[in-house]
Design goal:
heterodimer; A: 180 residues; mainly alpha; two-stranded antiparallel sheet; 7 helices; 2 strands; 70% helix; globular; B: 267 residues; alpha+beta; Thrombin, subunit H; six-stranded antiparallel barrel; 4 helices; 36% helix
């Protein structure tokens, strides 16, 4: 439980840090996202009810910083990011057997893909609301770029979080199987 | 799936449905509360960021220092000669600058504010300022600098407000082009690969043929922005199937904003 609370605190701090991370000009203004990495690590290292709670917390934070209430309408309702995080975290949780076997590379790649999936879903939702779907080179970079960055950061981030899990004696962390 | 997971899923679905049912007012209240809660983090983060930026810009390599030194010596000799002549002018400039202090010369009631955070998302362009309801700020108030329009307020907390920047696709402003009778709607791009995105001025007549360099101003139509505020300068004009479209470079550098004013009314 201590580890779960630490993950929530880290999720909050990562969301605050994202406010001050400038977009990468050399990558067509793609941004760096830290929160998905923490959520997707939690999806591997926590039991399903806690995964849902973490997805809820991260989704609510994302909704709060992105939601646009303009006059009488809301562009994307509060809740959609929660749903997105929950679905993607559930997929990652489904790959937990690989994590238990020590196959972290799958989760590193999946973290990148899921980060891009969040951005793609947001883009599709605003395109639907605003009435036109346009995919420019910049749009693809801004969807794919953060995913690539997440993939590159994932090994280090997962190693740090895994060490934290061991330090706090996270009871849900997998033990290496005898045959390995 | 075990029993506890099914129960957790049920509770999760119920809470999610509750949030999805939120209307604009409830969303605004929730968001304002959230921003009020995180405002200490944003304000202290903004302070740290400024310190880091000032240290980073102050650092130079030895070669750069030597090069600067050589050019400064030359410049110093030249400046000494002109310094004396400029002393009198300096006093006059300072006096005029004070006289032209934007807040004073403006015909609007302005609330000065500082940007404490920029948007952290890819698809929305907003900024957060350190003023709110306590300073009589409400939603849909224009935000300007002495150079021109910045955007408008959306969600307002006690001491913090979200500003929808002019470069966001959802920020639409009725605009006119100087020296013509052309009027249209300015809005930002949905996706921009540049740090300083251009704006689109749509619904111009196809015959407008607006020359680059002309300035665009708010018309006052729509009720949010008063008329006569500078928006930007025309960069190019093109004819589309149904209308003419001009590309506008914003007058305000939206990517490096630090201080802004919220227009709360007329004096």
């Amino acid at each position: 439980m201590i580890f779960f609370i630490i993950l929530l605190v880290l999720t909050f701090l990562a969301q605050m840090a994202e406010f001050f991370l400038p977009p990468l000009e050399w990558m067509y203004n793609a941004r760096i996202y830290l929160v998905p990495l923490i959520v997707f690590y939690g999806a591997m290292a926590l039991p399903f009810p806690l995964v849902l709670m973490q997805a809820f917390f991260a989704g609510l934070l994302l909704d709060m910083v992105t939601v646009q209430a303009l006059g009488p309408r809301v562009e994307i309702s509060v809740g959609w990011s929660i749903l997105l995080y929950a679905v993607l975290a559930a997929i990652m949780h489904g790959l937990r057997p690989l994590f238990i076997r020590g196959r972290w590379e799958v989760h590193c790649i999946m973290s990148g893909l899921c980060t891009s999936a969040i951005l793609l879903s947001q883009y599709l939702m605003i395109a639907f609301r605003r009435g036109s779907l346009v995919f420019t080179r910049e749009a693809w970079w801004q969807i794919g770029g953060p995913g690539v960055i997440a993939m590159l950061m994932a090994p280090l981030a997962f190693w740090i979080l895994h060490s934290l899990g061991r330090l706090t004696a996270n009871p849900y962390l997998p033990e290496p199987e005898p045959y390995e | 799936m075990n029993r506890s997971s099914i129960i957790a899923l049920g509770i999760f679905a119920a809470i999610l449905a509750y949030f999805l049912s939120f209307g604009a007012d409830s969303t605004r209240k929730l968001q304002a509360g959230f921003y009020s809660l995180i405002s200490p983090f944003l304000k202290s983060g903004s302070g740290i960021q400024k310190q880091i930026t000032s240290v980073r810009t102050g650092l130079q390599t030895l070669e750069e220092v030597e090069r600067d030194n050589a050019s400064l010596k030359v410049e110093n000799r030249s400046l000494k000669a002109t310094n004396q002549a400029l002393r009198d002018v300096e006093q006059e400039v300072n006096r005029l600058r004070r006289a032209l202090e934007y807040k004073e010369r403006s015909i609007f009631r302005l609330v000065p504010a500082e940007i404490v955070a920029r948007d952290s998302s890819t698809w929305w362009r907003t900024a957060t300022i350190n003023r709110g309801k306590n300073d009589h700020i409400e939603s849909d108030m224009p935000v300007v600098t002495d150079q021109g329009v910045v955007g408008k307020t959306t969600t307002v907390g006690e001491n913090i407000t979200i500003v929808l920047l002019l470069s966001d696709e959802n920020c639409k402003v009725a605009a006119s082009v100087e020296g013509t009778r052309e009027q249209g709607i300015i809005q930002g791009e949905r996706v921009s690969g540049s740090v300083t995105p251009l704006l689109d001025l749509n619904f111009l007549s196809k015959q407008a043929n607006i020359e680059p360099g002309r300035k665009t101003y708010t018309t006052g139509v729509g009720g949010v922005f008063p008329s006569g505020l500078l928006i930007g300068t025309v960069q190019s004009f093109r004819v589309r199937e149904l209308d003419g479209q001009a590309r506008i470079a914003p007058a305000v550098d939206l990517s490096h904003l630090e201080d802004v004013f919220v227009v709360t009314g007329r004096k």
